[in-house]
Design goal:
By secondary structure, the chain is an alpha/beta fold. It has 2 domains: about 10-220 and about 340-405, 3-Layer(aba) Sandwich (Rossmann fold), CATH 3.40.50.10540; about 245-250 and about 255-325, 2-Layer Sandwich (formyl-coa transferase, domain 3). Helices cover about 40% and strands about 15% of the residues. A 6-stranded parallel beta sheet has the order 5-2-1-6-7-8, with helices on both faces. Helix 6 crosses helix 7 (about 210-220).
């Protein structure tokens, strides 16, 4: 099947998580993504996490973090602090549809690589800046990392055990949620800008994505409840501010989650538990009432669930149409029949090891297909290819730039 973005070229000046994850999504859609890295150093994620080892046990320059968000790209090394390197970036930008960068606000202007400068080179360029605090505001020049925005967005204030319980206190979400949230917003914005350009609504434009903004927006209904009531949502552990029951319960051997999204599901739960009297209890008649009495209700359910093993309860609840699930580790998650059926783990050819397991793009299209043609690249692996085929540089010029440390 054809790819969504087979005629689109993306110049990726970003590194670490938010920008590279976004550009990988565009690469999966078929875009030609050229990743620009620092000579001899590369993207910081080449040093984050376990390194992939070759067939003889030697470390490569690809780590778990780098591999997770850099497939499908061509890596070139360019020193953008040097005028010759800046000329290369301008030449690449002139031949690109999209540029993604996550330098601190205003930093690329020092090199003549800001939006205004590159728009003069390519008026159709869609220039996406992803930063911690955005391009404007009192903190726009500061660096930012996921933990900062989990903290500042309010997300950590609602994540963790309730006050008074063992281990109470704010907790971070277990992965870089702010980076990934910003990535998806960036992809949506880029696709919208590409459509607007093709529709003649506008030519190129500058997209300003801030991790703080997108993480606050992603708090969505919980943040909206605060705006409407002025009441800070409490930390509820695995519980919900909007539905009850909706939490972890401990079976006689393992935990599971049980949730009821509506009153009919709660009646099914009560029947499956052999406690139809709960459905008739006025304290459980509607979701708002169950929320008011959540602690009492949870105790009633726990007393029953704790008497039997998880496998039995899963069979009972699933048969009754009650939403429930075991709590998996990653080994169990990847081994689940549904996950295997959806082919969420795939393998790509990878020179040093022969193959590399990867998490597949989660989107499914009926008329197009994700593209998995390039494994995560080695540092500068495609410098000569891009300089020769795209920029028309003669071999002697590339060799001179390499000697001078510019590429």
């Amino acid at each position: 099947m054809p790819a969504l973005l087979s005629r689109i070229r993306v110049l990726d000046l970003s590194r670490v998580f938010a920008g590279p994850f976004a550009s990988q999504m565009l690469a999966d859609f078929g875009a030609d993504v050229i990743k620009v890295e620092r000579p001899r150093v590369g993207d910081e994620t080449r040093y984050h996490g376990e390194r992939v080892r070759d067939g003889e046990g030697r470390e490569t320059d690809v780590t778990a973090a780098f591999a997770s968000m850099n497939r499908g790209k061509r890596s070139v090394t360019v020193d953008i602090s040097r005028p010759e390197g800046q000329d290369i970036i301008r030449a690449l930008a002139a031949r690109s549809d999209v540029l993604i960068e996550n330098f601190k606000a205003g930093e690329l202007a020092r090199y003549g690589l800001d939006y205004a400068s590159l728009q003069a080179v390519n008026p159709r360029l869609i220039y996406c800046s992803i930063t911690g605090f955005g391009q404007t505001g009192p903190r726009s020049g500061e660096p930012g990392y996921d933990l900062v925005f989990q903290a500042m967005s309010g997300v950590m204030s609602i994540t963790g055990h309730p006050d008074g319980e063992p281990g109470a206190g704010p907790l971070r979400v277990g992965y870089s949620v702010s980076d990934i949230t910003a990535s998806y917003h960036a992809v949506v914005a880029i696709l919208g800008a590409l459509y607007a350009r093709e529709a003649g609504v506008c030519s190129g434009q500058h997209i300003d994505v801030a991790l703080l903004d997108t993480q606050i927006a992603a708090a969505s209904h919980v943040a909206m409840q605060y705006l409407l009531t002025g009441v800070q949502p409490a930390r509820l552990g695995s519980g919900s501010h909007f539905m009850a029951p909706y939490q972890v319960f401990q079976c006689s051997d393992h935990p599971l989650v049980i949730l009821c999204g509506n009153d009919a599901q709660f009646r099914s739960l009560a029947k499956a538990l052999g406690r139809e009297d709960l459905a008739a209890d006025l304290r459980c008649a509607t979701n708002p009432q169950r929320l008011r009495h959540r602690e009492w209700l949870a105790q009633e359910i726990q007393a029953l669930v704790g008497t039997r093993p998880r496998a039995e309860w899963l069979e009972v609840f699933r048969g009754a149409g009650v939403p429930c699930a075991p709590i998996y580790d990653f080994a169990q998650a990847f081994d689940d029949p549904q996950v295997r059926h959806r082919n969420l783990v795939m393998s790509m050819p990878f020179g040093p090891t022969g193959s590399l397991p990867m998490i597949a793009n989660p989107l499914r299209f009926s008329g197009t297909s994700p593209v998995y043609e390039r494994p995560p690249p080695g540092l500068g692996e495609h410098t000569e290819e891009v300089c020769t085929n795209l920029l028309g540089m003669p071999p002697e010029r590339i060799a001179a730039l390499r000697r001078e440390g510019i590429v």
